[in-house]
Amino acid sequence: MSQLNQMELQSLRHLIGAHETAYQKMQTYAQQSNDPQVKAYFEKSAQDAQKTKQQLLSFLN
Q1: What is the tens place of the pLDDT at every residue in 39-54?
Q2: Which of 18, 40, 45, 55 could form a disulfide with 26 if both were Cys (CB 3.0 to 4.6 A apart)?
Q3: Is residue 32 part of a domain?
């Protein structure tokens, strides 16, 4: 894979941070939910955000 330029690296870091934030928020919302369907929705959203973050991190290797 080719080297990332400075702008691409900044964008990647921003996206990784945004997905980490989304993951944390979705986890918090899931913990606070009483409705099982809502809880499951937020847990799935948190998992999706974490998966995407991991995929983005792979570009840094």
Answers
A1: 999 999 999 999 999 9
A2: 45
A3: yes
